[in-house]
Structure formats: C-alpha cells, structure tokens
Amino acid sequence: MERYLKHQEIIEKTKRISGSYALDQGFFDDIIDQLLNSELESEDVILEGLQRLLQEVDHEIGRMEHFADLTASCFKGCDFCCYFPIVLSKMEAKMMFQSIKNFSEDRKQAIYDHWDRYYEKYAKTLKQALAMDHSADDTKLAYKKLNLPCPMLDPETQACMAYEVRPIPCRTYLNYSDPKVCAEQHLPQEPTSYEFLYNHYFEAINELVQVLYENGEDVVVDYPSDVWSYDYLPAWIEKWREGIWDEL
C-alpha cells in the first residue's frame, strides 16, 4: 500500500527547498539567448519562447522535487486544480490563443466547439465568477466553491485541451499527500504552490518580448500595456469569442 506524505513532512521538505536550494536563472536566460539568436520569425520566437519557458518551469519543479525527495501524487484524470481561478496577463492570453490557432485544424476546432458549449452551459456561473475581484484574498476559495471548470478542461477526459501552453498557475500547484485531500476539500492545506517561480518565468518572457519590441519586430501583443493587464482566463476567452481579439 502506497504511503503518502503527511502535511508536516511536506512542510519540512519544502522548507529545505526554500532554505538550501539555489535556483539557477541561467536555465531561463539560455532559452532567451537561443531564441534571440535563432533565424526564426518574431512570432515563432515568441510562441516557442512561451512554450519552452513554461516547460522550464516544469523542469525547475522537477529539480526541486529531486533535491527534496518529493514525488507528486497528482495523476492524469485528476482535475481538482482545474476549478481554481486562473489569472494571467493579457500578453500571455494573446500568446496562448495564438498558439491554439496554430494547432492542427481538428484539435483547434474541437476547442472552439467546446467553448461554444461551455459558455452556454455555464453562463450564469461565469457571470458570478468573473464579477469577483481576482486580486482579493478570499476570491480563490469563493471561486472554487462555484465548481466552475476551466474552459480548457475536456469534460470527457478530464485533461487540458491545450496542455503544452497551459498557464503557469496550472503548473505550480502540486499535491504530495493523499489525493483524497483534494477530492474531499475545496482548499486543502496539504498541496504546495511554487508561486515564486512566477517571477523567474515572467521576467524571462517579458525580456524576450521587450528585446524584439525594441528591435522594431512584430511582437503579437500590444507591448508594454498588455504586460500589466490581468484577468481570469475565462474572461480573456470570452472577449476573444465576442470577436474583439484585435482589441484585447
């Protein structure tokens, strides 16, 4: 029978990370240098940069887990964290949607068809959710209690429909204890959030876009204003569906 870590054990191991682990920003910097020195078009540089920097967040968490001897108990098909509010910048939303536009035709259409059903089915709940202040301390729990799934969650497979470009909040929330704590509570104390990685990732993606912008390249986004505008992922998708993509 598998033994899961208790809450105090998780606290001790994550303390070891915060106290002794040295994060190497060079991993992120190397990705930026490689892309800026490539022969890719500016849009491809940005979209590949988004995906590679998000993957580097995954890799960094893996290195920290190895350092602290942690193994996540998360598993494919568990969609607990897909009911949390996902907040991201307008810049990231545009990059994500542009990435989706470059998916295969069948995959892209499946997402668009899913959104049609999603925004019809959850119209009332979405109105409640999107009216919440995403910067307020009590919003996370209140939003979770609405049982509103992420618009990227496939209701049949419980998998993300844009997994490789899912936002950083989806990557940094992990459970190392019994999965039941997620199944039985809206906001359990056991899971760990590596929110400090946001800064490393965001500085890198901002640097990439900034360099291209200053070089006069087409950077896909309205820089720098898009960097500082934040909203819920369902709100950005709703605006895109309303035909105001160019105005986002």
Structure, described:
The protein is 51% helix and 4% strand. It is mainly α and 248 residues long. The termini are far apart. The chain has one domain (7-247). The longest helix has 27 residues, at 42-68. It has a two-stranded antiparallel sheet. A two-stranded antiparallel ribbon has the order 2-3. α2 packs antiparallel against α3 and α2 runs parallel beside α9. This is YkgJ family cysteine cluster protein. It comes from Halobacillus naozhouensis. It holds the Pfam family CxxCxxCC.
Order of strands in the sheet with most strands: 1-4
Shape: globular
> From the structure provided, what is the oligomeric state, counting identical versus distinct chains?
single chain
What is the tally of beta strands?
A: 4
Count of folded domains: 1
Give me the strand/helix succession. Answer: HHHEHHHHEHEHEH
Provide the β-strand percentage band: under 5%
**Helix/strand-derived class?**
mainly alpha
Q: Roughly how much helix do the residues carry, as a percent range? A: 40-55%
Can you tell me the residue ranges where pLDDT is under 50 for at least 5 consecutive residues?
none
User: The biggest beta sheet, please?
Assistant: 2 strands, antiparallel
Mean pLDDT: 94
Question: Taking Cα atoms only, what radius of gyration do you get, to the nearest Å?
Answer: 19 Å
Number of helices: 10
Give the distance, in angstroms, between the N- and C-terminal Cα atoms.
Answer: 51 Å
